[in-house]
Each structure stands twice: as C-alpha cells, then as structure tokens.
Amino acid sequence: MRTRVGTDRKASPPREGTALLQGVASCGKCGRRMTVRYQHYKGTSKPIYLCQYEGIRNAHPICQTMVGDQIDAAVGELLLSTLTPLTLEVALRVSDELAGRVEEADQLRAACVERARYRADLARRRYLAVDPVNRLVADTLEADWNASLRELAEATEEYERAKNTAIGPLSPETRARITALAADFPRLWNDPATPMRERKRMIRLLVTDVTLTKTDHISVGVVLHGGQSHRLTLPRPLTGWELRQTDPAVIAALDELLEEHTDGQSAAILNERGLPSGMNRPFTRGMIVHLRNAYKLRSHRQRLLDAGMLTVSELARHLGIHFQTVKHWRRDGIITGVLANDKGEYVYPLPGPELVRPVIGRPRRSVLDPEYSATTR
C-alpha cells in the first residue's frame, strides 16, 4: 500500500461538506493528499476526490479523479463492522508496541547523527591543525572535512524525515476517546441529526490514512490507528455515456430484426415488445440508424444485397430495360420485389427464365404513353 510522500501538506481540519474523507484520502499513484470538489445536480451534491498537486504547480494532467459517495459509504460500513471493544483493545496494544519500536529506531538514528557529527568535528580539528605551508596535506584534510559534513547533513535529514513521519504514542485522552467510541460510534454514526463535521472528526480518531487507486475498479486501502489495515475493492461507477448505453440484449434483438425488417419496422417492433432504449424513451427510426452505425450493424437493405438481391438499376441492366419498367412490372405483379428501407426502395431477386417468359412478346409501351406514365408515378 502506497503511503503519502513526506513533502505533502498535512491533513486539513474537518470542514463542512458531504466528503467524509476530506483531508484523509491519499492518491494511490503518486502518494499526494487528494483534494475535494463537489458536483451539484438537481439539489444534491456528490463529492469528487481528485489528485491535482502536479496539475496546480506544474500544469500536469490530473493524476486521478473519482466519485466519492460509494467510497465514503464503504469506509463507513467498514468502521461499523470492525469497531468493537475487542478490536479496539488489540489496536491500542499494537499501537503501543509500534510506538515503542519507533522510539528505539529514533534512538538508533540519533546515535548515527552523533557519530557523523563527531567525525565532522574531528575532521575540522585536523584541518585547522595542519601547517598551511603543506598544501597537499591541507587539501586532503579539507576534502575529508567536506565529506564528513555531507555525511552529517544526510544523517540529520534522514533523522528529521523519519521523526516527522513516525507514529507517536497515543495520549491518555486520545486512548480514552477511542475506547468510548466502541459503544457510542454506531449510534452516533447512524443518527441523521449527527452533522457531517462530527462524522469527519470520528473518522480522524479511528483512521490514519485512506489510499485510493482507480483502474478498472476502485481499490480503497484503509489504515486504522494502531497499524491495522484493510483493503476494499469497489466497482468503478458508470460514466454518463455508460448509463445511457442501450442494453446489449436490445442490440442483439435489433440485429435479428434487421434480417427481415427495415429501421422503422424494427423500431415499432421493439416498442411493442416493451424494450427500452438507453435513454428510456421509445425507439424511432433515427435512433435505429444511430445504433446501427454505433454497433456496426448491417442495414436491412445491405443484408438483402449481401444475399444476392439486385437493385432496380442492376436488374434493369440485367434485363436490358428501363428502370421505370422494372417498377411498373413490380406493381403489375410480373416480378417480385422486397422492401429494402423506409424510403420505399425495393430490391429484387435475379429472375429466372420462367419469370421473364410471360413478358416476352408483349408489346412494349413507351414511357411517353399517358397510361404508362400514370401507372409509373
């Protein structure tokens, strides 16, 4: 579990707002403290946790951003399920043990600093005692002094960094408040009259850090006082376009309908079946066209053409007649056409000799014939 970097700002005090983890949440990618932004919609507000440290200072893209309502709820449920007198007692004992080990490590690091300071002081005295005329020895002792000073600076920096990030022992007042929470916490947490600011204060009494990482899911690492850690895995909230996405079962039904129906006919059948669109509105021909293009579904016309059907122009060239004659023959029932789309276009199967034979020897009417023109409009 990644922890916050030492250069980050400390946790801010509880403020107003619905973000339960405000000032406590850390970025699981860079380790920086995450900030809070609120999204307001129809009188409600949702907390958004985002890591924008590098974005503010160096104009880099935002590291992570995620909706926080389900994260807050999951952390609250975790605390309610784990906060018992027994677990608190164990946690306090572990905290005491860790504090004792931290004190031992602090003493070791302080001893390292003292040894480095002693070597630096010894190198300084050797350099000051050398005869300035002996330049070779003086240069060597000066280099040794500079190296000792660098070691002292590194040891001091490491000591201060470890001291600032170490977990100190709990005060008696803090221990008493944590123990009292075992009985009062569930009642106070679930009380609607409890202000959000008070819930944030309770969180800070129990939780040291919450680390958030978003991939195809959201990973929440919770560290309690005393060192006990928990990891939660939450589903990633759906984006706006995913919430408006049409059900895959509806897309599969549309794909079947397009085998024998046009876009408008398919929309009517889907509405009769009571299948909803992504926006929960009745289907229209335009929506079917959009879905076909989005999911790369073949139109009814394309499916007929792929099956070997001919357009009116292709059939006219095949028979050596005018395309208006093809339309006239279809209306007279001489040849069969299949409706291809909602524009009234037809496609035709390749006619065999038995289909063309009835029209052989029939007098050919001119397109200028008024009777012919009236029937082909």
Distance between the termini: 77 Å
Mean pLDDT: 79
Q: Main beta sheet: strand number and arrangement? A: 4 strands, mixed
Strand order of the largest sheet: 1-5-6-7
Whole-number radius of gyration? 39 Å
In which range does the helix fraction lie? 40-55%
Strand fraction equals 5-15%
Number of helices: 15
Rough outline = elongated
Low-pLDDT stretches are 1-10, 357-377
Alpha-beta classification: alpha+beta
Strand tally: 9
Helix-strand topology string? EEEHEHHHHHEEEHHHHHHHEEHH
Oligomer: single chain
Brief digest:
The protein is of the alpha+beta class and 377 residues long.
Provide keyphrases for this structure.
three-stranded antiparallel sheet, single chain, four-stranded mixed sheet
Structural summary, described in words:
It is a single chain. The chain is elongated, with a radius of gyration of 39 Å. It has 15 helices and nine strands. Among the domains are: 56 residues; 66 residues. The chain is an alpha+beta fold and 377 residues long. Helix 12 packs across helix 13. It starts with 24 loop residues before the first strand and ends with a helix.
